[in-house]
Every structure is written in structure tokens, then in C-alpha cells.
Amino acid sequence: MHPPHVLVIGAGLGGLSAAASLAAGGLEVEVFEKNDRIGGKLNLLEQDGFSLDLGPSILILPHIFRRVFERAGRRMEDYVHLQELQPQWRCFWEDGTRLDLHPDVARMEAELATLPGATRGWWSFLEYSRELYRFCDRAYLQPGADTFREVLAGHTLGEVVHGSDPLRTMASGIARYVEEPHLRDMLGFFIKYVGSSCYDAPALMNLLPFSQLGYGLWYVTGGMYNLARAYDRLLGELGVRVHLGSEVVRIRTEGPRATGIELADGRFVAADYVVSNMEVVPAHRHLLGEPEDRVRRLEKRLEPAASGLVLHLGVDRIYPQLQHHNFFFSRNLEAFLAAIHRRKELPEDPTIYLVCPTVTNPDLAPSGHSVLKILPHIPSIQDPPFSASDYQALEARVLDKLERMGLEDLKSHVVTRHVLLPEDLERMYRSNRGAIYGVVSHRTQNFAFKGPKRSRRYPNLYFVGGSVNPGGGTPMVTLCGQNVADRILGDVASGRAAHPSSGA
Ligand SMILES: Cc1cc2nc3c(=O)[nH]c(=O)nc-3n(C[C@H](O)[C@H](O)[C@H](O)COP(=O)(O)OP(=O)(O)OC[C@H]3O[C@@H](n4cnc5c(N)ncnc54)[C@H](O)[C@@H]3O)c2cc1C
């Protein structure tokens, strides 16, 4: 019998992971990507002799990526190389404090000793972080749970309460252990990885520091886009057909089934299963043609995470004080996060994430030059949207702050510049309101649950990527792809497969 035919809409990391895992499981898979390259937000731009990774600049939890290759009987090392970054972060504050984050105990002790305030509690916090990670991995990440009920299925209520610290926010979970204000900022800003606020996110998100300190922080040798190239080769070997420049404009349905997809050029392709790597809200609005009031209700539940002003600069000098991964903190982190997540305003004094990948890989720029990726988080697209002059004023504040905090004469050293605004992110990747990390993690709104992977209406329609569980960030969407594949393969094995198509 012909194997079930799966169509994947979008070649972001979630879509690619699902496609590879489904093909490794013996299904016939095709991917339709509207852009002319795969990778989604893992994107690349060559400009004026500089190589700019437009999306991710590091990854954590490398074993999740490795599994995609292992499922196909391959070794990731034969496709792509990862190198560990140390120190993991370098943090700068306006009061002149500078602190490196190390996984190594002796090095971190030495760093802590440089702080003026009391730093006790750091190691007990990390133990707490490890327990949260272990619980979440067991109860939510590995089984691919979508609801609280599914988490409860394998655990007692007592285990869930102990394992997830449900009554606290992330910030109050940190404050229980750590007093020193710089350490509080640093630990709280791990929430950056999912574009949310530590003052609103559940304490469970304190699993993030252990996810990085326990498993390392990694760069893809040669540039992050080499990860997409590795997937490209793997998919080719697995017989997955990838159609670039192929925008899907409709998921066709009949009763409770998705029957296939319609492409912008008018073609229809029939399917047994459809997997949408287009986010849940835009897919319901544009591909399923759901009424706007229903989409608005859905959007309320799946509120977009932060977007960003993504500024790439090529500069004609090297700033020796920078590491690969740097943070320049706001004077008041809570006020910054409240501006973007509660009041939905462009921040006056943003915390700036600055990546200098040429520290690790000088080949990305001409000799003596550097690449700087400068990323302050900002709200997703609002009604009405921010104006061009609002964004320009923010960019000026960001560059002034970096100069004030030690990057002398930065503006006068810029030789090439590229900027992505939320509107660009929405246009390029079709993310809801230009969000970078899918759906926000909020304690009272969703307790960090995102959308479910399987459509409630069409059981053979699945979603993958940052807007569904477990959420945004490269490792989570990669895990999501594997979880989606497991569900579909489980359906097929148990005979709960959708009706076979007539052979597409
Ligand atoms: C500036 C920036 C920095 C980041 N830094 C990091 C980092 O350092 N570490 C980290 O882990 N994560 C980082 N992230 C987040 C990470 O990149 C994302 O969470 C992840 O890559 C998203 O994957 P996804 O599967 O959700 O799909 P996406 O990357 O959103 O891809 C979706 C794909 O679907 C395609 N598509 C959508 N609709 C259609 C349609 N109708 N027809 C055909 N194709 C369609 C899009 O073109 C796109 O290619 C960063 C993101 C950005 C933008």
C-alpha cells in the first residue's frame, strides 16, 4: 500500500524537523515554502562582504537537534558541527558592573566574588532550576503534552505542584533564592529566549538557566545557516521533496478533514495529513478562512510573544570587550518589560541583546571588522502600528546607550547596516504580528501553554512551530516537529489514519 502522504506548509525549523521525522518514519512527505530558501527565521544575508545570520545566533539543548538525525539513522556530526561558547553571556550594567556567565563552578565562583552584594543563593537557585527542567522535560516536553490534563495524566497533583512552582512568577521564583540585583536581572532575562516578561511568566520558566548551564550554549560552526543546509541534505537523502517559492493560500477541508492545499499558482495537492508551520492564528485567518471574530478570540488566547528591532551592523573595528553573546541591561529591567509587555510601548531604556558572532567566527566579516546583531525586544505590531519615526527614535536610543556603555564611537564605525522591523518579520515569515518567538508565556493567561499541535476541528491537520506547544526558540520548535511526527506516526500505526487520498 502507498504510504500516507503528508504536506508540510513552511520550511522553518519546526516544519523541517517534522518533515525529516515523518520521512524517517516511512511516510511520503512534501514541503511547500513560500520563500526561496529553507530555514524560516534561521535566515542568512550576504551584504557588503559581511555574512549576517538574520535569525538565531546560538542554540541550547543540542541533543534535541541531534535526535532529528538519529531518528533517520544518521549522526548529526556528519552533517553539521556545533561549538560550545564560553563564557555563555557577558552582561553589562549602567553602573559599570560587568559579569560573565560560566557553567564551570570555579569560574562562576570567581565571577560572583566580583559583585559587591551578597551572592548566596546562586547555587541553590540552579538546583531549583534543574528540578523545574527535569519535571518539565518528563511531564511536558518529551511526551509532547498540550494541556494541563495531559500533564496530570502521568503525575499526581502533588508532583505537578512541586515540579512547577505554580503560584509564583518567574521573577518571584528568582527572588526566593537570589538577592543581588545584577544576578536577579541576569536570571530574569533568560525569559528573552521566549520573548516574554519574567514578571508575568510562570516560575516554571526558571528552567531556562539550567537548560543552558546544564547542556551548554552552542554556535553552529561556519554560521548558523549551516544548520539549515544540514537539514536540506538530510531531507534530500530521505526523499522529501521541498518546493521553494511555493506559497500555500488555502487548506482545503471537507467535513472534519483537511483534504489538501491550494498553492498561489492555483494548483491543488491532495494530502492524507497537513502540517502547518505557518502559525496558528494566521493559518486560521488566511488558510482556513475562519470568521474574523473567531480568529480574534483565538488570538486573545494565543497572544504573540515579543517582536524586535533587529539591527545588523558591519563595523570597521573590533570591540575587544565583547563576547559572542552580550547583554546591556536597562537601568530598571521591570520598567522595560512592563513597557513592552503590559503597556505595549516602545521602550525608553531597553535591555539590549548584542551578538558579536565574529568573536567566534572572524570569517563572517572582512579582516579587522565585526558583525554586530543588536536586538532590543519590542511589542508585536499594534493597532495602530508604530511609525517609522518611532522606530528610528528607538534605534537612536539603542545606539546612544551602547556608546554610553562602552562601544566608543559605534555610529561612526558602521560600514553596513540592515534592519528588520516587526512588519518585515510578519511579511517574511508570516508570523502573527511579527512575533519572533510565537506565543507569549504568561502565568495567568496560559501558564506557558501554547496552541495544541492537532487541530480540534480537523484531526488530520497539525500545527508545528513557535505558536504551538512547547513554543518558540530553535530547540523547542525542533522538539515540536518530532512530537508532531510521533503523533501522526501513532495515528497511522493504530489505524486512526485519515482516509488515504486517491494518490495525490
Ligand atoms: C532575530 C531573531 C533572533 C533569534 N535568536 C534566536 C536564538 O539565538 N536562539 C534560538 O533558539 N532562537 C532564536 N530565535 C527564534 C527562532 O528563530 C524561532 O523560534 C524558530 O526558528 C521558529 O521556527 P518555526 O518552526 O516556528 O518557523 P519559522 O521560522 O517562523 O518559519 C515558518 C516558515 O513557514 C513559511 N510559511 C509561512 N506561511 C506559509 C505559507 N502560507 N506558504 C508557504 N510557506 C509559509 C515561512 O516563510 C517560514 O519559512 C530568533 C529569531 C529571530 C527572528
Characteristic key phrases:
single chain; 504 residues; alpha+beta; 3 domains; five-stranded parallel β-sheet; 21 strands; binds flavin-adenine dinucleotide
Structure overview:
The protein has 504 residues and is of the alpha+beta class. It has three domains: 5-42 and 223-303 and 450-493, FAD/NAD(P)-binding domain; 121-214, no CATH class; 306-436. 34% of the residues lie in helices and 19% in strands. Strands 7, 8, 15, 16, 17, 18, 19 and 20 form an eight-stranded mixed beta sheet that branches. Strands 10-2-1-14-21 form a five-stranded parallel beta sheet, covered by helices on one side. The protein has a three-stranded antiparallel beta sheet with strand order 5-9-6. α1 (13-24) runs parallel beside α16, α2 packs parallel to α16 (474-493) and α11 (280-287) runs antiparallel to α12 (292-301). Mean pLDDT is 96; it is low at 500-504. It binds flavin-adenine dinucleotide (FAD).
* Number of helical stretches of at least 4 residues: 16
- The pLDDT mean sits at 96
Tell the overall outline. globular
| Residues in helix, % | 25-40%
Rg calc? 22 Å
The description of the largest β-sheet is: 8 strands, mixed
Strand content: 15-25%
Number of strands: 21
**Total domains, how many?**
3
CATH topology-level name of the largest domain: FAD/NAD(P)-binding domain
> What small ligands are held by the chains?
flavin-adenine dinucleotide
CATH hierarchy, class of the largest domain? Alpha Beta
Unreliable spans: 500-504
Distance between the termini: 14 Å
Class by SSE composition: alpha+beta
Question: Any idea what the CATH architecture of the largest domain is?
Answer: 3-Layer(bba) Sandwich
CATH level 4 superfamily of the largest domain: FAD/NAD(P)-binding domain
